């Protein structure tokens, strides 16, 4: 049985070119970048080059990139780092109910430490309303954190408009761009973004790698203590091989981002076309236009999500019920709950399908027909 992987929003397979690029850094260029001898200097050279590649994609300065272990650490560092550095100015933070748990749980922890957090609502398409953000802003608001593209529905928030709104406010603007970075072009200065999180394993790069962009005017309190790596902002010996792989992933993504986006958009259209041809009863969760090209969240009325996922897995089709970080949990999606309400039928019968490296039109057609057959069988 041929297996078809359609869960690229959870993680992506590594590109062989990235694996090949990383190999020498495990055995030949193995020095500690903080060491002053030739082995350390050589490792430092490649670390600096990687930082320049990443900065180039965001049109920022290399020194504004903090290398991390992934998107979760980057989110934690951005939110807690700003909160601790600016708590004498205010203790109010604004975020959105549909954020990734790396953001939501960090905000919940800060509430226990005396900070006040406003959680913005979204409409049924998953978008926030700028008027609500305007009303939530206060003089003591020190941080606004809004995800660029949602990891469950793919919905893209009005990042540029938010950045424009905050230009005349003292609050810093952070965005979790883990799903969006590499898929859509991002110019941090043009969008007025102060902090941005990204992860390597969403780009066909290695797990355990990521970064946080921090505008040089932002004060940040470190959250990991030890050595003076990353300009004293993030202690710990850098993962040179992983960071080289991350940089190569960014480089490759930059070269074919437009083509990939068009390809994933076509795959999404193909999937939906087969559903229509099969006269399948379904609806799409999320905004029809303001969405990432590789993520499709579909509601199949009357079908148990647990049964659907198990049956699809038996057919060799890998999809998800939402965030990978809650895989195996019986709790309903907090994203769909925010969109439709806690009792909505979409919560128990929706799946996330996400496209990526290795997916071609024939595979998607095959998967769509299997999904249709399983849905029809379970609906009876």
UniProtKB/TrEMBL annotation:
The keyword Cell membrane does not apply. It catalyses: (sulfur carrier)-H + L-cysteine = (sulfur carrier)-SH + L-alanine. Pfam families: Aminotran_5. Its cofactor is pyridoxal 5'-phosphate. GO terms for molecular function: cysteine desulfurase activity; iron-sulfur cluster binding; metal ion binding. Its EC number is 2.8.1.7. Residues 4-365 form the Aminotransferase class V domain. The keyword Heme does not apply. It comes from the Bacteria. InterPro entries: Aminotrans_V_dom, Aminotrans_V_PyrdxlP_BS, Cysteine_dSase, PyrdxlP-dep_Trfase, PyrdxlP-dep_Trfase_major, PyrdxlP-dep_Trfase_small. Keywords: Iron, Iron-sulfur, Metal-binding, Pyridoxal phosphate, Transferase. Belongs to the class-V pyridoxal-phosphate-dependent aminotransferase family. NifS/IscS subfamily. This is cysteine desulfurase.
């Amino acid at each position: 049985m041929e297996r078809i992987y359609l869960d690229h929003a959870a993680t992506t397979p590594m590109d062989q070119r990235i694996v090949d690029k990383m190999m020498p850094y495990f055995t030949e260029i193995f020095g500690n970048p903080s060491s002053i001898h030739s082995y350390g200097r050589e490792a430092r050279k490649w670390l600096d080059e990687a930082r320049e590649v990443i900065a180039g994609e965001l049109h920022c300065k290399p020194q504004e990139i903090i290398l991390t272990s992934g998107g979760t650490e980057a989110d934690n560092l951005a939110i807690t780092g700003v909160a601790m550095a600016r708590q004498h100015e205010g203790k109010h933070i604004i975020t959105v109910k549909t954020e990734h748990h790396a953001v939501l749980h960090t905000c919940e922890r800060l509430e226990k430490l005396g900070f006040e957090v406003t959680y913005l609502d979204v409409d049924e398409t998953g978008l926030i309303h700028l008027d609500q953000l305007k009303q939530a802003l206060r003089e003591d608001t020190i941080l606004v954190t809004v995800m660029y593209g949602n990891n469950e529905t793919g919905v893209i928030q009005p990042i540029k408009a938010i950045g424009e709104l905050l230009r005349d406010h003292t609050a810093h603007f952070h965005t979790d761009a883990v799903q969006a970075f590499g898929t859509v072009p991002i110019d941090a200065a043009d969008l007025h973004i102060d902090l941005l999180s990204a992860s390597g394993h969403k780009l066909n790069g290695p797990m355990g790698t990521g970064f946080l962009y921090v505008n040089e005017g932002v004060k940040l309190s470190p959250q990991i203590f030890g050595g003076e790596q990353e300009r004293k902002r993030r202690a710990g010996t850098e993962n040179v091989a992983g960071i080289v792989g991350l940089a190569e992933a960014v480089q490759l993504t930059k070269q074919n981002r437009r083509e990939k986006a068009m390809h994933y958009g076509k795959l999404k259209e193909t999937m939906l076309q087969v559903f229509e041809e099969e006269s399948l009863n379904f609806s799409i969760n999320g905004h029809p236009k303001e969405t990432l090209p590789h993520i499709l969240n579909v509601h199949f009325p009357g079908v148990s999500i647990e049964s659907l996922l198990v049956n699809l897995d038996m057919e060799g089709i890998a999809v998800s019920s939402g965030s990978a970080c809650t895989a195996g949990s019986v709790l309903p999606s907090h994203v769909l709950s925010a969109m439709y309400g806690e009792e909505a039928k979409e919560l128990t019968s929706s799946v996330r399908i996400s496209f990526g490296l290795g997916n071609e039109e024939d595979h998607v057609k095959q998967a769509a027909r299997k999904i249709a057959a399983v849905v029809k069988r379970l609906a009876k």
